[in-house]
Amino acid sequence: MKTLLPLVAVALFAGAPAALAQSDDTNTDAVGPMVTDSKVDTQTFVMTVPNANALEIQSSKLAEQKSASADVKAFAARMIKDHTKAGEDFKAALSQGQTTASIKPAAPGLQPKEQQMLDELKGASGKDFDAKYIKMQTDAHRDAVALFSTYAQSGDDPAMKEFAKKTLPVLKMHEKHVKDLAVAHQ
After folding, report:
1. Whole-model pTM?
2. Considering just the CA atoms, what is the radius of gyration of the chain in Å?
3. 130: exposed, middle or buried (C-beta count within 10 Å: 0-12, 13-18, 19+)?
4. What are the tens digits of pLDDT across the range 86-108?
5. Strand boundaries in the chain, DSSP class E
6. Which of 5, 13, 120, 174 has the fewest CB atoms within 10 Å, measured from its CB?
C-alpha cells in the first residue's frame, strides 16, 4: 500500500478529475482502491496534501525569482502566503483528527513526478518559464479543487473534512486567478 500512495498522489496531481470522475465501472484497480468517483479516503487525502502544498510553495518561490512578469510574481507571492497558511492549518487539523493518529503524512520532500516538474521549471526562463508555471498552477489547482471538494463532501474525519471545507474557497480563488493569468499570457 505504501508504494501505491505516491502513485495515487501523482494521479491526483496529474489528473484528479479523471481519477475522481470514474465511470460506473467497478474496477478501481486503474486508480487504486482508495479513490472512487465520490469519495477520497482520509489516508489518501493526508498523504497527498503535504506534497501538493510543497510543490505550490517551491514552484512559486521559483516564480518570484525567475518570472519577468509582475502579475505572475504577484500570483506567486499569494501562493506562498496562502499555501504556507494551508500547511499550518493542515497540521492543526491533523493533530485534531479522529482517524489520523495512525497516518503519517508524506515527508516534506517532493514525489519524483513533482520534483521533475519543478526541475523543468528551474530549466526554463522568460516567457517559457511563465507558460510552464501557469500551466503547472492551472493543473495543480484543478486537481486540488477536485480533491478538496470530494473530501469536503465525503471525508470521514471531521477535522480533516472541516480543513478541506475551509481551504476550498481559497483554492477556487487561486484556480480562477491562474485562469485569468493564462488568458493574459497567451
Report:
1. 0.77
2. 16
3. buried
4. 999 999 999 998 887 777 776 66
5. none
6. 120
Taking the alpha carbons of 24, 28, 32, 36 in that order, is the dihedral positive or negative?
positive
Q: Which three cell numbers stand for residue 165?
A: 471545507
Indicate the residue type of 69. S
- What is residue 35's three-state secondary structure? strand
DSSP code, position 23:
-
What residue has cell string 499555501? 83
Question: What backbone torsions phi and psi does residue 40 show, to the nearest 5 degrees?
Answer: -120, 125
What is the separation, in whole angstroms, between the first and last Cα of the chain?
Answer: 41
Determine the Cα–Cα distance for residues 78 and 4; give it in Å rounded to an integer: 32
Supply 76's cell numbers. Answer: 506567486
The packing angle between helices 42-66 and 158-184, to 10°, is 30
Residue 15 has pLDDT above 60, yes or no: no
What's the grid cell of residue 71?
502579475
Residue among 50, 182, 49, 51 at smallest CA distance from 112: 51
> Nearest CA to 149 among 20, 23, 28, 13?
20
Closest CA to 63 of 183, 186, 181, 184: 181
